[in-house]
Amino acid sequence: MRISEVMTEGVVSADAESSLGDVAGLMRDRNVGSVVIMDSGRPIAMITDRDIALVVGADGVDRSQRVKPYAAHPLVTGDAEMNVEEAAAHMVQNRVRRLPILDTEGVLAGIVTLDDLAVRTGDLEMAQQITSQVAKAALPDYFFRQRGG
Predict the structure, then answer these.
(1) Which partner for 37 in 5, 11, 45, 148 could form a disulfide, CB atoms 3.0-4.6 Å apart?
(2) What is the CATH number of domain 3-141?
């Protein structure tokens, strides 16, 4: 199965010059947890609701600041022609839970998440394995050490 068959085509994106507040409002209005950041029509970064909460809420950055410096980059992307297993391996290797998908011309075509892989492929075992691998890759080893004697 190709990744293009399970991706969400309506990707929410914002210009790199947008403010943190505008992007947060976009997330609220579109009911999404991440936004792809675009520069000159090309995807360059991604920011999540958690990123904004930490930057604005915990670090005290003014919500009028541009989003670009606070978005995760470089952006890890996938190819619309990848199969689901290749995309899953790419996500694990790069420790990402969301993978923007580009068409053959490098234009943003969609996005796939770990949840998409679980729900749309119908392969719960694969989804659990991928989620576990991403978590283990992203977290320090001490979270996975054996406890007790």
Answers:
(1) 45
(2) 3.10.580.10
